[in-house]
């Protein structure tokens, strides 16, 4: 990552060529099928991205959507074991709500230790973005949350950049470290980012 206004340099590991080929074939079939004109049969029909407008605070666009995989994907795997691995990876990515890489849905890791214009590293830029959400969180909920360090981040770019940042924080002075999540959107051509949410990371199994 070289500049806040330039495209992020992202990792491309974690998704096999087989998976991308499978979904590509399914998407192509869906495009050619008149019965799928409303997109209801596509693998990721459950996703509903925020429109390119100012986001509503404390509203997660992933909430309320059902995880779906096109039944035709199963036929493209030679064994149940391979399909189960694919399915579990897709489910894990979906349940993370953007906070884990989801290459088939355009969400990638951010290299936190890369050099970046105007910052020592990309991590510093992520800290700045996360603190926008922390500030909003403290103002609206009368809290004293303090960011300690960024653990990881993912991003998705289109007409706007969506950043999903996982960080450690203290909820009160000298309190224990607690893992939190922040989501922020930075629209192209606009200087200030928009905070979307700030919340404790979900506990496993919840």
> What's the arrangement of strands in the largest beta sheet?
1-2-3-4-5
Shape: globular
Mean pLDDT: 80
Q: What is the CATH level 1 assignment of one domain?
A: Alpha Beta
What are the segments in which pLDDT stays under 50 over at least 5 consecutive residues? 2-15, 27-51
**What is the string of SSEs from the N terminus onward?**
HHHEHEEEE
Topology:
Elements: H1 17-32, H2 71-75, H3 80-95, E1 108-109, H4 122-141, E2 146-157, E3 160-170, E4 177-187, E5 194-200
Antiparallel strand pairs: 1-2, 2-3, 3-4, 4-5
Keywords:
disordered N terminus, 5 strands, Nuclear Transport Factor 2, Chain: A, 4 helices
Can you characterise this structure?
The chain is built from four helices and five strands; from the N terminus they run H-H-H-E-H-E-E-E-E. Among the domains are: 54-98, no CATH class; 110-200, Nuclear Transport Factor 2, Chain: A. It is an alpha+beta fold and 206 residues long. The protein has helices at 17-32, 71-75, 80-95, 122-141; strands at residues 108-109, 146-157, 160-170, 177-187, 194-200. It has a five-stranded antiparallel beta sheet, covered by helices on one side. The chain is globular.
Brief overview, please?
By secondary structure, the chain is α+β, with helices and mostly antiparallel strands. The protein has 4 helices and 5 strands. It has helices at 17-32, 71-75, 80-95, 122-141; strands at residues 108-109, 146-157, 160-170, 177-187, 194-200.
């Amino acid at each position: 990552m070289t500049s806040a206004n330039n495209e992020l340099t992202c990792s491309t590991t974690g998704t096999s060529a087989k998976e991308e080929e499978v979904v590509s074939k399914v998407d192509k079939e869906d495009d050619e099928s008149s019965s799928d004109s409303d997109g209801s049969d596509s693998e990721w029909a459950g996703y509903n991205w925020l429109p390119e407008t100012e986001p509503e605070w404390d509203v997660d666009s992933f909430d309320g959507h059902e995880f779906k995989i096109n039944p035709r994907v199963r036929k493209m795997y030679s064994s149940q074991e391979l399909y189960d691995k694919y399915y579990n990876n897709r489910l894990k990515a979906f349940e993370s709500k953007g906070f884990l890489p989801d290459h088939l849905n355009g969400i990638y890791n951010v290299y936190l230790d890369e050099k970046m214009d105007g910052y020592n590293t990309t991590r510093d830029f992520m800290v700045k973005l996360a603190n926008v959400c922390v500030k909003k969180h403290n103002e609206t909920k009368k809290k004293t949350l303090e960011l300690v360090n960024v653990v990881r981040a993912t991003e998705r770019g289109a007409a706007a950049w969506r950043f999903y940042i996982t960080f450690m924080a203290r909820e009160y002075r000298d309190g224990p470290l607690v893992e939190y999540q922040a989501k922020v959107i930075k629209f192209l051509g606009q200087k200030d980012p928009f905070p979307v949410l700030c919340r404790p990371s979900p506990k496993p199994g919840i």
